[in-house]
Amino acid sequence: MVHLSYVPAPVCAPQSTPTFHATTIVTGLCNCGAAGYRRGGPTLGTRAWRIPRRPRRRRDDEHGAEMVEFAIVVVLLIALLYGIITYGLILAAQATVTQAAADAARSGIVASSTAVATAEAEACGDIGWMNKTCGTPTTYNTTNCTFSPNPADAITAFACQMACPSNANATCLKVTVSYNYSSTPLFPEMPGLGVITPSTISSSNVLQLSTPTS
Questions:
Q1: pLDDT-derived band of residue 24, with 50, 70 and 90 as boundaries?
Q2: Cα–Cα distance between 55 and 52 in angstroms, integer?
Q3: Are the beta carbons of 96 and 129 closer than 8 angstroms?
Q4: pLDDT at 201
Q5: Using CA atoms, how far apart are residues 165 and 172, in angstroms rounded to an integer?
Q6: For the chain, what is the total number of helices (H) and then of strands (E)?
Q7: Closest CA to 153 of 175, 137, 130
Q8: Is-above-0.85 flag for pTM?
């Protein structure tokens, strides 16, 4: 069976009479003017030109890669910031402990009759901003001014009188302040960071308490 279809005349060369072809699909070609206009496709309707879309799979893959890179950068940035804060507080604690030992020794030599008690009280008062428990050791040796910190206290202040290292005929006051940082840090430590942070922060200061006897 032969189907007849109506084919309109080309725009550039209109005809007065319609043309019938014994085919269902006819492709026409017409050049108009200098620029040229080409039309092709089935004659039964206007051909719809579709622009191919970019595959979404590639965009999804790039988006996933960006998320992975962002996660890695954020983790490194947080670790760097955490380390800066932690070591900043460690340096502040070291400076405080050193200053507390020096201030305690100076206070002790002024109050010669109660040098030990005055020095220990001054040392615990200087580290007040750290909000840590401060006490005196339970076991100690006054001969060589050694002690064992009390586990119940985060900071131990110990003062004792001893012969001056430079002159055995003179009496000196030695003050030691020890901070158990590993058990009670100023800032919560990141897992694994305790390997490179100090376990104890301590400082000692020795001042002459009296003039030589000979």
A1: very low
A2: 9
A3: yes
A4: 96
A5: 8
A6: 2, 8
A7: 137
A8: no
